[in-house]
Protein backbone atom coordinates (compact mmCIF):
# COMPACT_ATOMS: atom_id res chain seq x y z
CA UNK A 1 0.00 0.00 0.00
CA UNK A 2 1.38 3.41 -0.97
CA UNK A 3 1.50 6.37 1.45
CA UNK A 4 -1.26 8.01 -0.55
CA UNK A 5 -3.53 4.95 -0.22
CA UNK A 6 -2.75 4.63 3.46
CA UNK A 7 -3.59 8.29 4.09
CA UNK A 8 -6.83 7.89 2.15
CA UNK A 9 -7.74 4.85 4.25
CA UNK A 10 -7.05 6.78 7.46
CA UNK A 11 -9.18 9.68 6.22
CA UNK A 12 -12.05 7.33 5.36
CA UNK A 13 -11.77 5.69 8.78
CA UNK A 14 -11.98 9.09 10.44
CA UNK A 15 -14.93 10.20 8.29
CA UNK A 16 -16.98 7.01 8.44
CA UNK A 17 -16.28 5.48 11.86
CA UNK A 18 -17.70 6.48 15.24
CA UNK A 19 -14.93 7.84 17.51
CA UNK A 20 -13.84 5.29 20.13
CA UNK A 21 -11.94 7.64 22.36
CA UNK A 22 -12.21 8.61 26.01
CA UNK A 23 -14.08 11.84 26.63
CA UNK A 24 -11.18 12.96 28.80
CA UNK A 25 -9.03 12.99 25.64
CA UNK A 26 -11.64 14.95 23.69
CA UNK A 27 -12.09 17.91 26.04
CA UNK A 28 -9.84 20.93 26.56
CA UNK A 29 -8.45 22.17 29.87
CA UNK A 30 -11.25 24.72 30.32
CA UNK A 31 -13.92 22.05 29.94
CA UNK A 32 -12.02 19.77 32.30
CA UNK A 33 -12.21 22.47 34.98
CA UNK A 34 -15.97 22.69 34.43
CA UNK A 35 -16.24 18.91 34.79
CA UNK A 36 -14.56 18.90 38.19
CA UNK A 37 -16.41 21.99 39.38
CA UNK A 38 -19.78 20.53 38.38
CA UNK A 39 -18.98 17.33 40.28
CA UNK A 40 -18.58 19.23 43.55
CA UNK A 41 -22.19 20.38 43.48
CA UNK A 42 -23.32 16.91 42.50
CA UNK A 43 -21.48 15.25 45.40
CA UNK A 44 -23.04 17.71 47.85
CA UNK A 45 -26.51 16.89 46.51
CA UNK A 46 -25.89 13.14 46.53
CA UNK A 47 -24.63 13.26 50.12
CA UNK A 48 -27.82 14.93 51.34
CA UNK A 49 -30.43 13.31 49.05
CA UNK A 50 -30.46 9.84 50.63
CA UNK A 51 -34.22 9.30 50.17
CA UNK A 52 -36.81 10.23 47.57
CA UNK A 53 -38.32 12.83 49.92
CA UNK A 54 -34.95 14.45 50.55
CA UNK A 55 -34.14 14.55 46.83
CA UNK A 56 -37.44 16.25 46.01
CA UNK A 57 -37.02 18.75 48.82
CA UNK A 58 -33.48 19.69 47.77
CA UNK A 59 -34.54 20.04 44.12
CA UNK A 60 -37.51 22.19 45.08
CA UNK A 61 -35.39 24.42 47.32
CA UNK A 62 -32.91 24.95 44.48
CA UNK A 63 -35.73 25.78 42.05
CA UNK A 64 -37.41 28.28 44.38
CA UNK A 65 -34.08 30.07 44.81
CA UNK A 66 -33.97 30.41 41.00
CA UNK A 67 -37.41 31.98 40.71
CA UNK A 68 -39.75 28.98 40.32
CA UNK A 69 -43.21 29.43 41.87
CA UNK A 70 -46.06 27.02 42.50
CA UNK A 71 -48.25 26.41 39.47
CA UNK A 72 -51.25 26.22 41.79
CA UNK A 73 -50.60 29.77 43.01
CA UNK A 74 -51.33 30.97 39.47
CA UNK A 75 -55.12 31.36 39.02
CA UNK A 76 -56.68 29.02 36.48
CA UNK A 77 -57.42 30.94 33.29
CA UNK A 78 -54.47 33.28 33.64
CA UNK A 79 -52.05 32.86 30.73
CA UNK A 80 -48.44 32.29 31.77
CA UNK A 81 -45.96 34.11 29.57
CA UNK A 82 -42.89 32.63 27.90
CA UNK A 83 -40.10 32.23 30.41
CA UNK A 84 -42.42 31.74 33.40
CA UNK A 85 -40.90 29.25 35.86
CA UNK A 86 -43.20 26.98 37.81
CA UNK A 87 -43.33 23.80 39.87
CA UNK A 88 -45.90 21.26 40.96
CA UNK A 89 -45.02 19.10 43.96
CA UNK A 90 -46.94 15.89 44.66
CA UNK A 91 -47.11 14.16 48.05
CA UNK A 92 -43.54 15.04 48.89
CA UNK A 93 -42.16 12.40 46.50
CA UNK A 94 -42.82 13.75 43.00
CA UNK A 95 -41.80 17.08 41.51
CA UNK A 96 -42.51 18.67 38.14
CA UNK A 97 -40.45 21.73 37.25
CA UNK A 98 -41.06 23.73 34.11
CA UNK A 99 -40.29 26.81 32.04
CA UNK A 100 -42.94 28.03 29.60
CA UNK A 101 -41.64 28.07 26.04
CA UNK A 102 -42.05 30.49 23.15
CA UNK A 103 -44.45 28.16 21.33
CA UNK A 104 -47.85 26.98 22.45
CA UNK A 105 -48.37 23.74 24.37
CA UNK A 106 -50.16 22.26 21.35
CA UNK A 107 -46.74 21.92 19.72
CA UNK A 108 -45.64 19.66 22.55
CA UNK A 109 -43.19 19.88 25.43
CA UNK A 110 -39.61 18.72 25.96
CA UNK A 111 -39.62 16.55 29.06
CA UNK A 112 -36.84 14.85 30.99
CA UNK A 113 -38.00 12.22 33.47
CA UNK A 114 -35.80 10.74 36.21
CA UNK A 115 -36.50 8.76 39.36
CA UNK A 116 -35.30 9.70 42.83
CA UNK A 117 -35.85 6.44 44.70
CA UNK A 118 -33.01 3.95 45.12
CA UNK A 119 -32.57 0.39 46.41
CA UNK A 120 -32.50 0.32 50.20
CA UNK A 121 -33.81 -1.40 53.31
CA UNK A 122 -37.15 -0.33 54.80
CA UNK A 123 -38.22 -1.06 58.36
CA UNK A 124 -41.10 -3.50 58.74
CA UNK A 125 -44.27 -2.10 60.40
CA UNK A 126 -43.44 -3.85 63.69
CA UNK A 127 -39.65 -3.85 63.52
CA UNK A 128 -38.37 -3.91 67.10
CA UNK A 129 -37.56 -7.13 68.96
CA UNK A 130 -34.98 -8.47 71.41
CA UNK A 131 -32.91 -11.63 71.15
CA UNK A 132 -29.67 -12.84 72.79
CA UNK A 133 -29.30 -9.58 74.69
CA UNK A 134 -29.54 -7.38 71.59
CA UNK A 135 -32.31 -5.10 70.32
CA UNK A 136 -32.86 -5.44 66.57
CA UNK A 137 -35.04 -3.99 63.82
CA UNK A 138 -36.56 -6.26 61.17
CA UNK A 139 -36.31 -4.92 57.61
CA UNK A 140 -37.84 -5.46 54.18
CA UNK A 141 -35.58 -4.71 51.23
CA UNK A 142 -36.76 -2.30 48.55
CA UNK A 143 -35.77 -2.80 44.92
CA UNK A 144 -33.17 -5.09 43.40
CA UNK A 145 -30.27 -5.64 45.78
CA UNK A 146 -27.60 -8.24 46.43
CA UNK A 147 -28.46 -8.93 50.04
CA UNK A 148 -24.95 -9.86 51.13
CA UNK A 149 -23.72 -6.36 50.18
CA UNK A 150 -25.77 -4.85 53.00
CA UNK A 151 -24.14 -6.70 55.90
CA UNK A 152 -21.30 -5.36 58.08
CA UNK A 153 -21.88 -1.92 56.56
CA UNK A 154 -22.37 1.43 58.37
CA UNK A 155 -26.02 2.35 57.89
CA UNK A 156 -28.04 5.49 58.64
CA UNK A 157 -31.75 5.76 59.38
CA UNK A 158 -33.76 8.36 57.41
CA UNK A 159 -37.47 8.92 57.24
CA UNK A 160 -40.74 10.29 58.54
CA UNK A 161 -42.78 9.26 61.60
CA UNK A 162 -46.37 10.35 62.12
CA UNK A 163 -47.21 10.53 65.83
CA UNK A 164 -50.64 9.76 67.25
CA UNK A 165 -51.39 13.47 67.70
CA UNK A 166 -50.81 14.10 63.98
CA UNK A 167 -47.37 15.65 64.46
CA UNK A 168 -44.84 14.81 61.75
CA UNK A 169 -41.31 13.95 62.86
CA UNK A 170 -38.38 13.76 60.45
CA UNK A 171 -35.56 11.39 61.39
CA UNK A 172 -31.94 11.35 60.25
CA UNK A 173 -29.58 9.31 62.44
CA UNK A 174 -26.11 8.18 61.44
CA UNK A 175 -24.87 10.87 59.06
CA UNK A 176 -23.09 13.13 61.57
CA UNK A 177 -19.68 12.17 62.93
CA UNK A 178 -21.04 12.40 66.49
CA UNK A 179 -24.11 10.28 65.74
CA UNK A 180 -24.45 6.51 66.15
CA UNK A 181 -24.63 4.27 63.10
CA UNK A 182 -26.43 0.95 62.65
CA UNK A 183 -25.45 -2.28 60.94
CA UNK A 184 -26.57 -5.75 59.95
CA UNK A 185 -24.23 -8.32 61.46
CA UNK A 186 -22.55 -10.98 59.34
CA UNK A 187 -21.53 -14.52 60.20
CA UNK A 188 -17.85 -14.93 60.97
CA UNK A 189 -15.96 -17.10 58.45
CA UNK A 190 -14.89 -19.48 61.23
CA UNK A 191 -18.53 -20.62 61.58
CA UNK A 192 -19.73 -20.06 58.02
CA UNK A 193 -18.78 -23.43 56.52
CA UNK A 194 -22.37 -24.38 55.62
CA UNK A 195 -23.28 -20.85 54.57
CA UNK A 196 -20.31 -20.66 52.20
CA UNK A 197 -21.52 -23.77 50.37
CA UNK A 198 -24.71 -21.98 49.32
CA UNK A 199 -25.05 -19.82 46.23
CA UNK A 200 -25.18 -16.05 46.71
CA UNK A 201 -28.96 -15.85 46.50
CA UNK A 202 -29.53 -18.52 49.14
CA UNK A 203 -26.71 -17.64 51.56
CA UNK A 204 -28.72 -14.77 53.02
CA UNK A 205 -32.50 -14.44 53.07
CA UNK A 206 -34.49 -11.23 53.26
CA UNK A 207 -35.51 -12.10 56.81
CA UNK A 208 -31.84 -12.35 57.81
CA UNK A 209 -31.36 -8.60 57.25
CA UNK A 210 -31.88 -7.63 60.88
CA UNK A 211 -30.45 -4.36 62.13
CA UNK A 212 -28.56 -4.09 65.41
CA UNK A 213 -29.92 -1.06 67.30
CA UNK A 214 -28.98 -1.52 70.96
CA UNK A 215 -27.65 -3.71 73.76
CA UNK A 216 -28.10 -1.83 77.07
CA UNK A 217 -30.97 -3.06 79.28
CA UNK A 218 -33.44 -0.67 80.84
CA UNK A 219 -32.87 -0.57 84.63
CA UNK A 220 -35.76 -2.63 85.97
CA UNK A 221 -36.50 -5.68 88.07
CA UNK A 222 -36.33 -9.28 86.91
CA UNK A 223 -40.08 -9.38 86.36
CA UNK A 224 -39.70 -7.03 83.34
CA UNK A 225 -38.95 -8.89 80.12
CA UNK A 226 -36.99 -7.67 77.08
CA UNK A 227 -35.24 -4.86 78.91
CA UNK A 228 -33.02 -3.94 75.95
CA UNK A 229 -36.07 -3.59 73.71
CA UNK A 230 -37.72 -1.45 76.38
CA UNK A 231 -34.63 0.75 76.62
CA UNK A 232 -34.75 1.42 72.87
CA UNK A 233 -38.46 2.26 73.01
CA UNK A 234 -37.76 4.63 75.89
CA UNK A 235 -34.98 6.38 73.96
CA UNK A 236 -37.25 6.80 70.93
CA UNK A 237 -39.98 8.21 73.14
CA UNK A 238 -37.66 10.63 74.93
CA UNK A 239 -36.09 11.94 71.73
CA UNK A 240 -39.01 11.90 69.30
CA UNK A 241 -42.17 11.28 71.35
CA UNK A 242 -42.57 7.92 69.60
CA UNK A 243 -44.53 4.95 70.91
CA UNK A 244 -44.43 1.55 69.23
CA UNK A 245 -47.71 2.09 67.41
CA UNK A 246 -46.19 5.08 65.62
CA UNK A 247 -43.65 2.78 63.94
CA UNK A 248 -46.47 1.05 62.07
CA UNK A 249 -47.36 4.26 60.23
CA UNK A 250 -43.78 5.44 59.71
CA UNK A 251 -41.64 5.52 56.56
CA UNK A 252 -38.15 4.69 57.80
CA UNK A 253 -35.37 3.80 55.37
CA UNK A 254 -31.89 2.41 55.97
CA UNK A 255 -29.22 3.76 53.65
CA UNK A 256 -25.41 3.67 53.62
CA UNK A 257 -24.02 6.25 56.04
CA UNK A 258 -21.59 8.93 54.97
CA UNK A 259 -21.04 11.34 52.09
CA UNK A 260 -20.29 10.77 48.41
CA UNK A 261 -16.56 10.88 47.74
CA UNK A 262 -14.03 11.31 44.95
CA UNK A 263 -12.80 7.92 43.82
CA UNK A 264 -9.40 7.05 42.35
CA UNK A 265 -5.95 8.62 42.55
CA UNK A 266 -6.92 11.09 39.82
CA UNK A 267 -10.30 11.93 41.42
CA UNK A 268 -11.97 11.32 38.06
CA UNK A 269 -14.78 9.19 39.51
CA UNK A 270 -17.55 9.68 42.06
CA UNK A 271 -18.32 6.94 44.56
CA UNK A 272 -21.58 7.13 46.46
CA UNK A 273 -24.96 5.66 47.28
CA UNK A 274 -28.06 6.26 45.13
CA UNK A 275 -26.43 7.41 41.89
CA UNK A 276 -29.08 5.30 40.18
CA UNK A 277 -30.85 7.54 39.51
CA UNK A 278 -30.06 10.72 41.41
CA UNK A 279 -27.19 11.42 39.03
CA UNK A 280 -29.80 11.99 36.32
CA UNK A 281 -32.13 13.88 38.65
CA UNK A 282 -29.37 16.32 39.57
CA UNK A 283 -28.06 16.85 36.05
CA UNK A 284 -31.59 17.32 34.66
CA UNK A 285 -32.39 19.78 37.45
CA UNK A 286 -29.27 21.82 36.77
CA UNK A 287 -29.94 21.76 33.04
CA UNK A 288 -33.41 23.24 33.57
CA UNK A 289 -32.21 25.82 36.10
CA UNK A 290 -29.66 27.03 33.53
CA UNK A 291 -32.21 27.23 30.71
CA UNK A 292 -33.45 30.69 29.73
CA UNK A 293 -36.55 30.74 27.50
CA UNK A 294 -36.85 27.47 25.57
CA UNK A 295 -38.54 27.02 22.20
CA UNK A 296 -40.95 24.38 23.54
CA UNK A 297 -42.05 24.35 27.16
CA UNK A 298 -39.32 22.53 29.07
CA UNK A 299 -40.18 20.13 31.89
CA UNK A 300 -38.23 18.02 34.36
CA UNK A 301 -40.20 15.30 36.12
CA UNK A 302 -38.77 13.59 39.22
CA UNK A 303 -40.72 10.49 40.27
CA UNK A 304 -40.69 7.78 42.90
CA UNK A 305 -41.07 3.98 42.93
CA UNK A 306 -39.12 3.17 39.74
CA UNK A 307 -37.10 0.51 41.54
CA UNK A 308 -40.26 -1.48 42.29
CA UNK A 309 -42.02 -1.07 38.95
CA UNK A 310 -43.09 2.62 39.03
CA UNK A 311 -46.24 1.64 40.92
CA UNK A 312 -48.45 3.67 43.25
CA UNK A 313 -49.62 7.25 43.03
CA UNK A 314 -46.06 8.62 43.12
CA UNK A 315 -44.64 6.39 40.39
CA UNK A 316 -44.35 7.08 36.67
CA UNK A 317 -47.21 4.62 36.08
CA UNK A 318 -49.60 6.97 37.89
CA UNK A 319 -51.66 9.64 36.14
CA UNK A 320 -49.72 12.51 37.69
CA UNK A 321 -48.33 13.66 34.33
CA UNK A 322 -51.84 13.92 32.89
CA UNK A 323 -52.98 15.88 35.91
CA UNK A 324 -49.97 18.20 35.76
CA UNK A 325 -50.42 18.92 32.05
CA UNK A 326 -54.11 19.61 32.64
CA UNK A 327 -53.22 22.19 35.29
CA UNK A 328 -50.58 23.68 33.01
CA UNK A 329 -52.92 23.83 30.01
CA UNK A 330 -55.50 25.68 32.10
CA UNK A 331 -52.88 28.37 32.76
CA UNK A 332 -51.56 28.68 29.23
CA UNK A 333 -54.76 29.24 27.30
CA UNK A 334 -56.20 25.72 27.12
CA UNK A 335 -59.15 24.26 28.98
CA UNK A 336 -60.05 20.79 27.77
CA UNK A 337 -58.68 17.28 28.18
CA UNK A 338 -58.49 16.84 24.41
CA UNK A 339 -55.73 19.43 24.32
CA UNK A 340 -53.77 17.44 26.92
CA UNK A 341 -53.81 14.42 24.64
CA UNK A 342 -52.60 16.57 21.76
CA UNK A 343 -49.80 17.99 23.91
CA UNK A 344 -48.53 14.54 24.80
CA UNK A 345 -48.80 13.24 21.25
CA UNK A 346 -46.58 16.10 20.03
CA UNK A 347 -44.06 15.89 22.89
CA UNK A 348 -40.57 14.48 23.13
CA UNK A 349 -38.93 13.04 26.23
CA UNK A 350 -35.74 11.62 27.60
CA UNK A 351 -36.01 8.89 30.17
CA UNK A 352 -32.99 10.02 32.16
CA UNK A 353 -31.63 6.86 33.71
CA UNK A 354 -28.29 5.17 34.14
CA UNK A 355 -27.00 2.09 32.37
CA UNK A 356 -24.33 -0.49 33.05
CA UNK A 357 -20.76 0.39 32.16
CA UNK A 358 -18.30 -2.31 31.20
CA UNK A 359 -16.68 -3.75 34.31
CA UNK A 360 -13.31 -5.25 33.31
CA UNK A 361 -13.65 -7.88 36.05
CA UNK A 362 -16.99 -9.11 34.68
CA UNK A 363 -16.78 -8.24 31.00
CA UNK A 364 -18.11 -11.68 29.99
CA UNK A 365 -21.71 -10.48 30.58
CA UNK A 366 -21.32 -7.53 28.19
CA UNK A 367 -21.46 -7.32 24.41
CA UNK A 368 -18.26 -5.32 24.10
CA UNK A 369 -19.23 -4.01 20.65
CA UNK A 370 -22.37 -2.39 22.05
CA UNK A 371 -21.66 -1.79 25.73
CA UNK A 372 -20.96 1.63 27.21
CA UNK A 373 -17.78 2.58 29.04
CA UNK A 374 -17.11 4.91 31.93
CA UNK A 375 -15.50 8.13 30.77
CA UNK A 376 -16.71 7.92 27.16
CA UNK A 377 -19.62 10.32 27.48
CA UNK A 378 -23.33 10.18 28.26
CA UNK A 379 -25.08 7.05 26.97
CA UNK A 380 -27.95 7.16 24.48
CA UNK A 381 -29.97 3.92 24.59
CA UNK A 382 -32.47 3.11 21.85
CA UNK A 383 -34.12 0.47 24.04
CA UNK A 384 -33.85 -1.25 27.40
CA UNK A 385 -35.82 -4.25 28.64
CA UNK A 386 -34.58 -7.82 28.86
CA UNK A 387 -33.90 -10.64 26.45
CA UNK A 388 -36.28 -10.09 23.51
CA UNK A 389 -36.65 -6.38 24.42
CA UNK A 390 -39.41 -7.45 26.80
CA UNK A 391 -40.89 -4.61 28.87
CA UNK A 392 -38.95 -2.02 26.86
CA UNK A 393 -39.57 1.22 25.08
CA UNK A 394 -37.90 1.03 21.66
CA UNK A 395 -37.28 4.53 20.27
CA UNK A 396 -37.87 5.20 16.58
CA UNK A 397 -35.12 5.89 14.08
CA UNK A 398 -36.54 9.37 13.48
CA UNK A 399 -36.40 10.35 17.15
CA UNK A 400 -32.96 8.81 17.69
CA UNK A 401 -31.74 10.73 14.66
CA UNK A 402 -33.05 14.02 16.06
CA UNK A 403 -31.35 13.37 19.39
CA UNK A 404 -28.08 12.49 17.68
CA UNK A 405 -28.20 15.76 15.74
CA UNK A 406 -29.00 17.81 18.86
CA UNK A 407 -26.09 16.29 20.77
CA UNK A 408 -23.61 16.68 17.92
CA UNK A 409 -24.63 20.28 17.22
CA UNK A 410 -24.10 21.14 20.89
CA UNK A 411 -20.78 19.28 21.20
CA UNK A 412 -22.13 16.72 23.63
CA UNK A 413 -19.82 13.72 23.89
CA UNK A 414 -22.07 10.67 23.80
CA UNK A 415 -21.96 6.94 23.17
CA UNK A 416 -24.48 4.22 22.50
CA UNK A 417 -25.10 1.44 24.96
CA UNK A 418 -26.97 -1.69 25.88
CA UNK A 419 -27.56 -3.29 29.28
CA UNK A 420 -25.49 -6.46 28.91
CA UNK A 421 -25.62 -9.38 26.50
CA UNK A 422 -29.00 -10.24 25.04
CA UNK A 423 -29.65 -13.27 27.26
CA UNK A 424 -27.65 -12.13 30.29
CA UNK A 425 -30.52 -10.26 31.93
CA UNK A 426 -31.60 -6.67 31.48
CA UNK A 427 -33.65 -3.95 33.11
CA UNK A 428 -36.26 -1.29 32.53
CA UNK A 429 -36.76 2.43 33.06
CA UNK A 430 -39.69 4.84 33.15
CA UNK A 431 -39.45 5.22 29.35
CA UNK A 432 -42.30 2.80 28.65
CA UNK A 433 -44.65 4.71 30.96
CA UNK A 434 -43.90 8.00 29.23
CA UNK A 435 -44.35 6.30 25.85
CA UNK A 436 -47.77 5.06 27.02
CA UNK A 437 -48.98 8.67 26.85
CA UNK A 438 -47.75 8.98 23.27
CA UNK A 439 -44.48 10.84 23.79
CA UNK A 440 -41.41 10.06 21.70
CA UNK A 441 -38.96 8.68 24.28
CA UNK A 442 -35.40 7.42 24.45
CA UNK A 443 -33.17 6.53 27.41
CA UNK A 444 -30.20 8.76 28.14
CA UNK A 445 -27.86 8.87 31.13
CA UNK A 446 -24.39 8.06 32.47
CA UNK A 447 -22.98 4.55 32.80
CA UNK A 448 -22.27 3.17 36.27
CA UNK A 449 -20.20 0.43 37.83
CA UNK A 450 -21.64 -1.52 40.80
CA UNK A 451 -25.20 -0.42 40.00
CA UNK A 452 -27.61 -1.02 42.90
CA UNK A 453 -24.75 -1.61 45.32
CA UNK A 454 -24.40 0.51 48.48
CA UNK A 455 -21.59 2.36 46.68
CA UNK A 456 -21.96 3.03 42.95
CA UNK A 457 -19.31 4.48 40.64
CA UNK A 458 -19.75 7.16 37.96
CA UNK A 459 -17.32 9.17 35.83
CA UNK A 460 -17.26 12.91 36.37
CA UNK A 461 -16.94 13.60 32.65
CA UNK A 462 -20.02 11.45 31.93
CA UNK A 463 -21.96 13.31 34.62
CA UNK A 464 -21.06 16.64 33.02
CA UNK A 465 -21.95 15.39 29.55
CA UNK A 466 -25.34 14.26 30.85
CA UNK A 467 -25.93 17.83 32.01
CA UNK A 468 -24.84 19.14 28.60
CA UNK A 469 -27.09 16.65 26.80
CA UNK A 470 -30.14 17.47 28.91
CA UNK A 471 -29.61 21.21 28.55
CA UNK A 472 -29.32 20.94 24.77
CA UNK A 473 -32.46 18.81 24.59
CA UNK A 474 -34.53 21.19 26.74
CA UNK A 475 -33.40 24.27 24.85
CA UNK A 476 -34.65 22.78 21.59
UniProtKB/TrEMBL annotation:
Cellular component terms per the entry's GO annotation: cytoplasm
Alphabetic keyword roster: Aminopeptidase, Hydrolase, Metal-binding, Metalloprotease, Protease, Zinc
Q: Which residues form a coiled coil?
A: none
Provide the GO MF annotations for this entry: aminopeptidase activity; metallopeptidase activity; zinc ion binding
Q: What is its EC number?
A: 3.4.11.-
A GO biological-process term: proteolysis
Q: Which residues cross the membrane?
A: none
Cofactors: Zn(2+)
Q: Which domain of life is it from?
A: Bacteria
Homology family = Belongs to the peptidase M18 family.
Name of protein? M18 family aminopeptidase
Amino acid sequence: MTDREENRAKKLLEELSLPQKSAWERIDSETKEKVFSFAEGYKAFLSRAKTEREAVRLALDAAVRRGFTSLLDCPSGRVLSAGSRFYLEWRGKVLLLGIVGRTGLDEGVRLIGAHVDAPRLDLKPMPLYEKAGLALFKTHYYGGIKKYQWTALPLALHGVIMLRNGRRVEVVIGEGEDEPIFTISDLLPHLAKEQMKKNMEEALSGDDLNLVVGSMPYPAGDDVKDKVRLAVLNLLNERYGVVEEDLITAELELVPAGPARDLGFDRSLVGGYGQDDRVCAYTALQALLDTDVPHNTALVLLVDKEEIGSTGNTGAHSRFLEYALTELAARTGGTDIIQVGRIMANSQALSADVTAGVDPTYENVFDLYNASRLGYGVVLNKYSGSRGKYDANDASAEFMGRLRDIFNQNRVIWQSGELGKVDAGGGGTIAKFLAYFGLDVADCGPALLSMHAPLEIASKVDIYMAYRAYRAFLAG
